[in-house]
User: Fold this.
Amino acid sequence: MKVILVTGANRGIGRETIRQLARQGHKTILTGRNAERVRQAQDDLAAEGIITDACPVDVRDDNSVAHLVRFIADRYGKLDVLVNNAGVFLDGSDSAKADIEIIRDTFDTNVLGPYRLIEKLLPFLKKSGDARIINISSGMGGLSEMNGGYPGYRISKTALNAVTRIFANDLAAEKIRVNSVCPGWVKTDMGGERATREVDQGAETVVWLATADNIPNGKFLRDKKEIPW
Ligand SMILES: NC(=O)c1ccc[n+]([C@@H]2O[C@H](COP(=O)([O-])OP(=O)(O)OC[C@H]3O[C@@H](n4cnc5c(N)ncnc54)[C@H](OP(=O)(O)O)[C@@H]3O)[C@@H](O)[C@H]2O)c1
Assistant:
C-alpha cells in the first residue's frame, strides 16, 4: 500500500487517478486549490464507496504548500508517489495576441507549481525507498509535435518536461523515478466534450507509473509507451 498525493484532484483526470488508486487499496491524498471543492470531491467519492484522505493545496502558494508539508509530516511521515496533475489552460489560439500575464499565470501553476511541490515534498519522497514523481504534461508541450497557438500552455508543458528531465537525473541516485505523461485528449472541463478519450483512459498511464514494478525514468509517455520530447 503506497501513500500517493495528486494535485488538482477535485475534478477531471486528477480525481479519476485518485478513484483508481484508492480502489486498488492505496492511501490517497486528494488535493485541490479550493477547500470546499476538495471536500465535495472527497464526499462524492465516499458516496461511491471510495475512501480518500484530502487536503486543500494551491500549488502557487508557499503558505498553502507549507500547510500540506505539516499535514504529511503529521499523518504519514513519508510519500511514495507525487502526481503533479494540477494545471490550467488560459490562453487562446492566436500567439500574436497572447497576453504576457496569461503566459506568466500559466507558468506559475503548470511549471513553478510542480517544481515547488517536488522541492518541498522531497524529504518525504526520500523516505519511500521506491518513490515516483509523475508530471502530467501534454503532447502540446512536445517539441516534436509542436504547432502554433496556445503559447502559454505549450511553453509551460515544454518547461514541465524540462523539470522532469532535470529531477530524473538529479534524483536517480536516490532511486526516485521522475516521468512526464501525456494523457491524450480527455473529456474533462479542460479537454471539452469533443475530446476523444474518457477520463478513465486519461488516468491509465498515470496509475501504471504510480504502481507498476518496471517503470522507466526520465521519459515522456503516452499509453504506457515512450514518446519523443
Ligand atoms: N484534458 C485533456 O485533454 C488534457 C490533455 C493533456 C494534458 N492535460 C493535463 O492534465 C492535467 C489535468 O487536466 P484536466 O483535463 O483534468 O483539467 P481540469 O478538469 O480543468 O482540472 C484541473 C484541476 O487542476 C486544479 N488546479 C488549477 N489550478 C490549481 C492550483 N493553482 N492549485 C491546485 N490545483 C489547481 C483545478 O482546480 P479547480 O477545480 O479549483 O479549478 C482542477 O482540479 C492538467 O495538467 C492538464 O494540463 C489534460
Q: What stands out?
A: The pocket of NAP is lined by residues 7-8, 10-14, 32-34, 37, 57-60, 85-88, 109, 113, 136, 138, 182-183, 185-186, 188-191, 195 (CB under 6 Å). Strands lie at 3-6, 27-32, 53-56, 81-84, 132-136, 177-181, 220-222, 225-226.
